Amino acid sequence: IPLFEARGLTLDYVTERGTVRAVDAVDFTIAEGERLVLLGPSGCGKSSILKAVAGFLEPSAGSLSLRGSAIRGPGPDRLVVFQEFDQLLPWKTVLDNVAFPLVATRRMKKAEAREIAADALRRVGLERALDSYPHTLSGGMKQRAAIARALAASPDVLLMDEPFAALDALTRLQMQRDLMDIARETGLTLLFVTHDIDEAVLIGTRLHLLSAHPGRTITTLDVSAFDMRD
Ligand code: ADP
Ligand code: ADP
């Protein structure tokens, strides 16, 4: 069985003006070590799918399962990095932002959590910012810290929702490359949302194309053969 499976996934929002169908009967799977990119125009439901996988949004129909078990609510096995730069706690250092969730949710000793956190921060190139506070960091560095926090918890699937979209072009390129280096090194399983075709081809081993609102599956493309960088 695949690590992760969505079958007939349908997502609705209930609003004052009625029910909005954001995602309509979408199917996809993610194998271990695979990088699946959800690609489609703005409003096609990519973020909604990611939120459902994260456990923030419940399917109206269909199913989502991880290792064969239905997903119920959020969990440290599926962690999200969002587009926004304000994902860190402003009153904690970068090191403690990454270490804190390990202490809180894994009941790890502080010293051990800090060791794992420092290692994750090293992997994203933030070894010199361990004692900095978030407000002193650039947008790119904040995103690196958010990525390190997710990596430190070793999730089964890392979920990323346009994590580089708000960065300047040069920083975005650097971060895309660094993410790919980390992914190859660690065999990261990734579900990545973007509307940028270049980014999708760069990051993904497979692309899952969604139609405009409400999102339905158009097709899934294997793009691992395009990976000429190794
Ligand atoms: P994408 O990430 O592809 O831009 P979204 O998942 O954000 O798409 O949105 C899909 C559709 O669901 C859009 O039509 C959007 O307006 C609608 N939608 C998203 N979030 C909500 C919400 N909280 N309430 C009502 N409608 C929403
Ligand atoms: P994205 O970058 O995914 O396109 P948006 O700017 O469309 O994000 O949406 C940002 C936030 O607003 C999301 O949390 C989404 O759920 C919410 N949202 C989007 N569309 C609507 C809507 N029609 N009604 C209420 N909330 C919405």
UniProtKB/TrEMBL annotation:
CDD domains, per database record: ABC_NrtD_SsuB_transporters (cd03293)
TM region(s), chain numbering: none
Keyword flag tRNA processing: no
Domain ABC transporter: 6-230
GO MF, one example: ATP binding
Claim: rRNA-binding is one of the keywords in the record: no
Source species, domain of life: Bacteria
InterPro entries referenced in this protein's UniProt entry, alphabetically: AAA+_ATPase (IPR003593), ABC_transporter-like_ATP-bd (IPR003439), ABC_transporter-like_CS (IPR017871), ABC_transporter_ATP-bind (IPR050166), P-loop_NTPase (IPR027417)
Pfam families found in the cross-reference section: ABC_tran (PF00005)
Keywords carried by this UniProt record: ATP-binding, Nucleotide-binding, Transport
Family to which this protein belongs: Belongs to the ABC transporter superfamily.
Protein name in the entry: ABC transporter ATP-binding protein
Species the sequence originates in: Ancylobacter oerskovii
